[in-house]
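Lab notebook, bench 4. Still working through the backlog of constructs that have no structural model yet. Next entry is a single chain of 241 residues. Request: give me the structure tokens for it.
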Amino acid sequence: MASFFGEVVTGSFRYFDDEDEDEQQEVDYRSFSVTSPPTREKKLLIVADGQLSAVYLQLVADKQKIGSLNAIGHKNSEIGTIYRGSDWTAVSCSTELQRGEYTILANTILGLTDPAATVICLTSRHISEFRGAEEERGETVVKSLKTKTFPTIDKIGRLEAPNILTGLSAGILSIAAVKGIPACLLVNYVDILTADSLSLQGFQNLHRLPVASSSSLKPATNLAAALKAVRLAASPSNLYM
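Model written out:
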């Protein structure tokens, strides 16, 4: 099915087209599983979609890794990591998938939660993809989307049309909207898609959302130092480290 998400409360909408029906009929898509699946999360599920958000999640949750996310097909492979705290579960996936696989994976990830749990997705895009007023542009721009059951977001601006998102986060929000799951997406528009303290800074907005700030998952106090500690800042072209 095509991934569709609408902000019903305001009347505006965004269309997420992740799949082509003809293509789905011709491709043998993989299924997905988790190792040592935890009990269903009852409070907060965080999904890091893409390399930058996966790095950020590693910085703030690395010591609480409990398993992995796996693709099952002709050749099984690990495509992500699962973390868990006392009142949250987090899943990262930085692997490129076929378009028709996003909905399959989205359902697998949502299967880790109780229906009442809140879901927050983190993803990033290059700033050249952002369509908005010139005064909004900077080294980073963070925008949000939410289902109507997610609480009002006061501190982070809404992503307006004609901006379009595709991928895992779009699939998760689409399913959440249909099922009435409280869910939110934060998209971090950056000038460089390499992990450094500046490109990751936008993800700190996660902790401005009350459901996240009240959890035991805390922000990194020094992103540059945290990156160095996990040896992710090895590139000599990284200007911010």
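Notes after review: The radius of gyration is 17 Å. Residues 168-179 form the longest helix (12 residues). Flag for follow-up if needed.
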